[in-house]
Amino acid sequence: MIRLGVNIDHVATLRQARLGREPDPVAAAFEAVLGGADGITVHMREDRRHIQERDVRILRQTVACRLNFEMAVTREITAFACEILPDEATLVPEKREELTTEGGLDVLAHLAAVETCIGQLKERGIAVSLFIDPDPRQIEAAHRLGSHAVEFQTASYSEANSPAERTECLERLIDASRMAASHGIHVHMGHGLNYQNVFPVAAIPQVEELNIGHSIVSRAVLVGMRQAVRDMKEAIALGRANIRSAQH
């Protein structure tokens, strides 16, 4: 069974549009868990455009399932993670001018900083995942640094402009998953996945976790968070069933 991590950043985005108190991402996390979420994912960006420190502190105290803290490789955010102690920290690239995370973390280009960050997090007992492109060089770097997991960015797959391009991107995800698993690295995926394109990704045998936010929050506006999470869990289960069908 694939775990579903529900990213609640965009609930906070809606709140911050008015700089008010609602909707509360903490309440959204509670509803997501009631809907079947296996974990809650938040990204506290340096500019605090959505998730705030207050949110993460309360989530750490109230989320009964796994808390995945997405974070930039900076001293400030690393120190905060070491204080909060999430179950997992996912290191992601971050640019202030981007609307959302674009592409994976270039581990090779920031090797020393990533290695230092991983070491500090591990000392506090925090499992570390690296949000990377499905690139063999990045996988090898993650392996050398002792990353517990990698989360392959699925934006290229999700945003493909043609069936041929989408198939090519999916093949890269499949090959990367096999390679990571062969190194003993846990395989996660996320970014741009929705109720229509999640099936082939869920059918990749090595995938253990999907982190999905925008699509679920968008659906939750119409049907409620619990139902939106249930619908995504069902879609993932249908995709996973393709593995069993292919094996028989």
Approximate helicity band: 40-55%
Overall 3D geometry? globular
Overall mean pLDDT stands at: 94
Q: For the CA atoms, what is the radius of gyration?
A: 17 Å
Residue fraction in strands: 15-25%
Summarize the biggest pleated sheet: 8 strands, parallel, barrel
> Tally of extended strands?
8
CATH class of the domain at 3-128 and 199-243, named Alpha Beta
- CATH-derived topology of the domain at 3-128 and 199-243: TIM Barrel
CATH architecture group name of the domain at 3-128 and 199-243? Alpha-Beta Barrel
Report the CATH superfamily of the domain at 3-128 and 199-243: Aldolase class I
Number of helices: 11
Task: Supply database-style keywords.
single chain, TIM Barrel, eight-stranded parallel barrel, 8 strands, alpha/beta, 248 residues
Summarize, please:
The chain has about 250 residues and is α/β, with parallel strands linked by helices. The protein contains 11 helices and 8 strands. It has helices at about 10-15, 25-35, 55-60, 75-85, 110-125, 135-145, 155-160, 165-180, 200, 215-225, 225-245; strands spanning about 5, 40-45, 65-70, 90, 125-130, 150-155, 185-190, 205-210.
Molecular structure report:
The chain is built from eleven helices and eight strands. With 248 residues, the chain is α/β, with parallel strands linked by helices. The protein has a domain of 171 residues: TIM Barrel (Alpha-Beta Barrel), CATH 3.20.20.70. Helix 2 runs parallel beside helix 3 and helix 2 packs across helix 11. The longest helix has 23 residues. The protein starts with a strand and ends with a helix. 44% of the residues are buried.
